[in-house]
Amino acid sequence: QQVNPFDYIIFGATGDLTMRKLLPAFYNKLRLGQIPEEARIIGTSRTDLDKAGYIERANEALERFIPDETKSPELIERFLKMLNYITLDGTKSDSDWAGLHTILAESPKDRIRVFYFATAPQLFGAISENLSKNDLITSHSRVVLEKPIGTNLDTANAINNGVGQFFPENQIYRIDHYIGKETVQNVLALRFANPIINAVWSSEYIESVQITAAETVGVEGRASYYDTSGALRDMIQNHLLQVLCFVAMEKPESLEADTVRNAKVAVLKALRPITDKNIASDTVRAQYTAGTVGGNNVPGYVDELGHTSNTETYAAVRAWVDTPRWKDVPFYIRTAKRSAEKVSEIVIQFRAEASTLFGKPPASNRLVIRIQPHEGLDLRLNVKNPALDTFTLRTAELDAPLLIEGQPFPDSYERLLLDAVRGNPILFIRRDEVESAWRWAEPILTGWSENKAPMETYSAGSHGPAKAEAMLASNGDKWHENM
Ligand code: BG6
């Protein structure tokens, strides 16, 4: 359904995220009739451009990033009419705030106003301050914060305090595009709308959980960011811990945003701390060396950078959620650049059936939740082998696609962008979630910086370092591709 008219003000409007993700997502929502014609998107950045120049760039981005099936010249024209642009340095008080004021004053006073900060996070506080000083924050305003919120707990607090001085928490929408993925949201439906799943969702039946987000790409044009971040900060502290929360949370009493977020915080707080004692056995960090990905030879990480580096492009952790439900169930989390394939998935490995009625079953039950690509579910069952007159078992896979025929999956930003307009923060991260996630992740980063776990290597195009295989083998487990 259509949202109320809004003014979306994007800081960082000429950046890659805006061009690649945000504008195409808005376009698709307009196409689906969910955005009213009066809605406006006002780009701002330091780049000296006028409105026509920005529209030209936006047009090029749409040409490039919208799939052909949804491209329509008439619709693109309507979309471009929603755009405006103002050259503005959000961190400078003497920038053209009056210009932004004039544009916003064209809208009714009670128009929903969403400020989207797609800039470097250390600028968020200064931009918020300037918005406040220039009287641009109304009671109908919200602010969306892009990741990364900090590089550790202190810097996260500095960012949250900086923004929090000018926006109350209920107006702050911290985005994590993994929660925008339909397949991640679907974990809640799967668990809480299906008694046959819900009933077995505990350590009594589940032996281990794997959460993987692997990519074939390297660091592309983002080396200057990535080399200061690394895989743990870039993917695990935020995206993969959020996925873990969806898998591990207790059933929230309702779909009220804070009820769901309370349930997630409870999981994050129950994560067993990684300490100097177990960092070497329960974490693996690694960098890719030269190799072959998808038939192409690619250089190693340090060659790509042109200098030595202590940044991991692969991270794996054996995590434990210390609640009665998850007693003794390892959660193996991993992420990699330049991996063998692009795949994000959750693997729920069930315990073996103890009964020996048919002898040892060929395999235990396993549920694979394919976050992307081939979005869907795969459930492995033991069945009777029809080729034999004896009760001999074989395995069969139940494969349920989550895509509806003929309907493309919405991009992860689409719902999130409009949820901020709707004022529904259920899929956004509350401040205490960020803090709890950092409390768990930071000791790993500290330990790594003190060399408490060695930097491993893996060939580009492989599934990761041997040490990560060994970590699972010590529990008698294997990564999904080796099962
Ligand atoms: C981003 C990371 O948050 O997520 C990138 O900064 C990564 O490094 C991307 O490539 C992965 O997202 P997706 O949706 O392609 O899995």
Major beta sheet summary = 9 strands, mixed
Ends distance: 44 Å
Radius of gyration: 24 Å
- Helical amount: 25-40%
The assigned structural class equals alpha/beta
- Number of separate strands: 17
Estimate the strand proportion: 15-25%
Total helices: the number is 16
| Widest sheet: strand ordering | 16-15-14-13-7-12-11-8-17
Mean pLDDT: 96
Low-confidence stretches: none
The shape is: globular
Q: Identify the bound ligands.
A: 6-O-phosphono-beta-D-glucopyranose
Topology:
Elements: E1 6-11, H1 16-31, E2 40-45, H2 51-65, H3 73-81, E3 83-87, H4 97-105, E4 112-117, H5 124-133, E5 141-145, H6 153-164, E6 172-174, H7 182-192, H8 195-198, E7 206-214, H9 223-229, H10 231-248, H11 257-270, H12 279-282, E8 283-289, E9 291-293, E10 296-298, H13 301-305, E11 314-320, E12 330-336, E13 343-350, E14 366-372, E15 376-384, E16 393-401, H14 412-422, H15 431-449, E17 455-459, H16 466-473
Parallel strand pairs: 1-2, 1-4, 2-3, 4-5, 5-6, 7-12, 8-17
Antiparallel strand pairs: 7-13, 8-11, 9-10, 11-12, 13-14, 14-15, 15-16
Helix pairs in contact: 1-2, 1-14, 5-6, 6-15, 10-11, 10-15, 11-15
The structure holds 6-O-phosphono-beta-D-glucopyranose (BG6).
The site of 6-O-phosphono-beta-D-glucopyranose has 4 residues, from loops.
